[in-house]
Amino acid sequence: MSVDGDDAQTVSGARSGILDEVEAAEAALRDAALRGRIPGPRAADDPTCPDKPGDPDRDFVEMIDADQKIEPRDWMPDGYRRTLIRQIAQHAHSEIIGMQPEGNWLTRAPSLHRKAILLAKVQDEAGHGLYLYAAAETLGISREELVDLLLAGRQKYSSIFNYPTLTWADVGAIGWLVDGAAIINQVPLCRCSYGPYARAMIRICKEESFHQRQGYEILHTLAHGTPAQHQMAQDAVDRWWYPSLAMFGPPDADSTHSGQSMRWKIKRFSNDELRQRFVDMCVQQVEPLGLTLPDPELRWNEQRQAYDFTPPDYDELLRVIRGDGPCNRQRLAHRRAAHAAGGWVREAARAYAEKQAGRRKAGDTTAGVGVATAGVGAPPVGAGAG
Ligand code: BYC
How many angstroms does the Cα of residue 90 sit away from the middle of ligand 1? Predict the structure, then answer.
């Protein structure tokens, strides 16, 4: 069964609204570039601009206030650079670790059609990881270093991927709720002040909107199937609801970075604002599924023009962030094993790149033709489904 009629409108309505926001962000990026940049922030001792005494802090703030993009060669405060590396790396690692819970179902998808769709989705996540590592590299850290930090447990990835996928319906719940939460969180990042991150997010968000729809369609099919299938869909929504709410991070009062990140226009909305948007979107979308959200306190608040809801258990979020969730150890162990098993691919890619560079140096103009440049010296990170 497919999603049709009013049900399709509910999801596509939300989806096209989201895609409209992404398109608007893309247009804003183009406009900012066309307007021409105000003189960018430079280091105080920059010899290229003797007539403008360097005040990089002031220039940086001017650029941010003018909604222009900070680019890799611009001067930026150390804290801005560190915050971006932390957030983009965490985001990239989430995409890569996030391939595991769904990859777990690749061999068990209920039909060849479902398997092909899931395979494409999991491959998309690898691509998102790649764009994000590339964006982080523009800040002066290598992908190798970032991967090492993840494997050593010194950088984080999203709490959500430390929960198990017990049934096929979980793949639907991940698509609808986890990708749905990701979209709500990530569409505003298309307007992030750092150019390479904003540009990567535009492409990612376009793909995520398909992911959300495929999850919704899986749940819709199950929810309108046999009573046992309906129950399986409800059970998956019940288990993924609160972990999805927790993806937005601690409540605003306990959020260490939100204030500064919003001043720097890295984040555009606070954790609680985005969580509320997500709840309001899901309440609309759950009805056509014929399912319910597992929160007896969920009700419309006329005064706030938003739904009241029970917040997630933030102590549980902290435990999961600190490494004590249901699957933390398994996820990292699997990634370490996949990374070690892929060592020969990295070595071969490096040897190939060196050989091609040698040939180019020797004047062979055909050297490297047909090789994806992104792969040279930086082979793709393996899925490591398990
Ligand atoms: N999980 O001050 P706060 C995806 C940490 S990919 C783990 O509010 P911030 C997808 C936070 O890092 C989903 N840690 O932080 C992929 C900080 O610790 P540190 C990933 C969390 O950065 C495949 C501390 O708690 N999305 O959706 O202002 C398939 C205090 O928090 C979490 C992104 O990464 C968490 N849930 O805000 C399907 C989006 N929450 O770093 C789907 C980009 C908080 O000081 N990231 N922490 O040690 C963001 O938007 C922000 O980083 C966050 C947190 C909203 C996540």
Answer: 7
Going from the Cα of 1 to the center of ligand 1, the distance in angstroms, rounded, reads 36
Q: Are 222 and 214 in contact (CB under 8 A)?
A: no
Q: Which atom of ligand 1 is nearest to the CA of 91?
A: 34
What's the CA gap between 190 and 27, in Å, rounded? 11
CA 116–ligand 1 middle distance (angstroms): 30
Cα separation, 339 vs 342, whole angstroms: 5
Ligand 1 atom index nearest CA of 98: 23
Express each pLDDT in 131-165 by its tens digit. 999 999 999 999 999 999 999 999 999 999 999 99
What is the sign of the dihedral through the CA atoms of 154, 155, 159 and 165? Answer: negative
- Give kind and range of the element (H or E) at residue 240: helix 227-246
Residues in the chain: 386
Whole-angstrom Cα distance, residue 8 to residue 289? 11
Q: How many CA atoms lie within 13 A of 107 on its CB side?
A: 4
Which residue among 97, 158, 159, 160 has the greatest number of ligand 1 atoms within 8 angstroms of its CB, and so is best to mutate? 158
The span from the CA of 349 to the CA of 368, in Å, is: 12
This prediction has a pTM of 0.89
| Per-residue model confidence as pLDDT tens digits over 78-135 | 999 999 999 999 999 999 999 999 999 999 999 999 999 999 999 999 999 999 999 9
The Å distance, Cα 318 to ligand 1 centre, comes to 12
Torsion, Cα of 188, 189, 193, 195 (10° steps): -130
Which residues does residue 299 pair with via DSSP β-bridges, in sequence order? 308
Q: 306: which strand partners?
A: 301
**Considering only CA atoms, which residue is closest to atom 20 of ligand 1?**
91
Which residue from 96, 222, 92 is spatially nearest to 170, judged by alpha carbons? Answer: 222
User: What is the rounded CA–CA span in Å between residue 133 and residue 127?
Assistant: 10
The answer to whether 64 touches 193, Cβ cutoff 8 Å, is: yes
Task: For the beta carbon of residue 163, count every other beta carbon within 10 angstroms.
Answer: 20
Tell me the two tokens of residue 148.
């090492």
